[in-house]
Amino acid sequence: GEDVEQSLFLSVREGDSSVINCTYTDSSSTYLYWYKQEPGAGLQLLTYIFSNMDMKQDQRLTVLLNKKDKHLSLRIADTQTGDSAIYFCAEPRRADSWGKLQFGAGTQVVVTP
Amino acid sequence: DTEVTQTPKHLVMGMTNKKSLKCEQHMGHRAMYWYKQKAKKPPELMFVYSYEKLSINESVPSRFSPECPNSSLLNLHLHALQPEDSALYLCASSQGGGGEKLFFGSGTQLSVL
After folding, report:
1. Is A41 in Cβ contact with B48 (below 8 Å)?
2. pLDDT averaged over chain B?
3. How many CB pairs under 8 A join A and B?
4. Do A44 and B104 count as a contact with CB atoms less than 8 A apart?
5. For B11-60, what is each residue's pLDDT tens digit?
6. A81 phi-psi bin (left φ>0, alpha ψ -120 to 50, beta other)
7. Contacts of residue A86 in chain B, CB cutoff 8 Å?
8. What angle do CA A43, B85, A110 make, to 5 degrees?
9. What is the C-alpha separation between B61 and B1, in angstroms, rounded?
10. Which pLDDT value is given to residue A98?
């Protein structure tokens, strides 16, 4: 399909791990991004992965990339209440060189005590 | 300085008003963007400026008029808006070129009465 797809909602208990999944569309995408949006705020670039990598780890965040299946995931270890937000995966749109991004619908993560 | 600053944070306007949204960045980025975001939806691209020239207009109605006075500033002039234009308007910037990261401001929440 033409859309970047994400599940819409994830509920997780504080201290557990969260895994947010995304399916993207363009196998030639060079970078894939995860953005975080807290209520009433703009989008914060959380992390990104270059397409020649399978995994990237940054403190509590782990990004996994499966190019064969065009599947991207974001794992948050030891999830905290401050991780409650909407998470968007994004890929550059085709044939574009000015950073136009195709966003997924966003996954709302709710962290419960 | 890694911030994109947007003013005002909130704006209420009538359908006959003229107002402007402002965006500023001092990261030396050469590409700047306007996005529109409805509640619980991903951002939608409106305009892209690269090297102070309008490079992309995503078929936005003429009641929205962008302006890029210099490489650090981006404005969005609003005139004769409709209630359905109520949304969060996000400014973003990037270095310029392919596949680079976008940095977003915190947005202007616009309500059109």
Report:
1. no
2. 92
3. 69
4. yes
5. 999 999 999 999 999 999 999 999 999 998 999 999 999 899 998 899 99
6. alpha
7. 40
8. 35
9. 33
10. 56
Task: Give chain B positions within 8 Å (CB) of A31.
Answer: 99, 101
Residue of A nearest to B42 (CA): A105
CB–CB contact A106 B45 (8 Å)? no
Assign A81 to helix, strand or coil. Answer: helix
SS3 content of chain B, % helix, strand, coil (to 5): 5, 55, 40
| Cα–Cα dist B43/B2, whole Å | 21
Query: CB contact, 8 Å: A51 with chain B?
Result: no
Considering only CA atoms, which of A79, A111, A87, A104 is closest in space to residue A25? A104
Q: Does any CB of chain B come closer than 8 Å to the CB of residue A45?
A: yes
Cβ pair A16, A102 in contact under 8 A: no
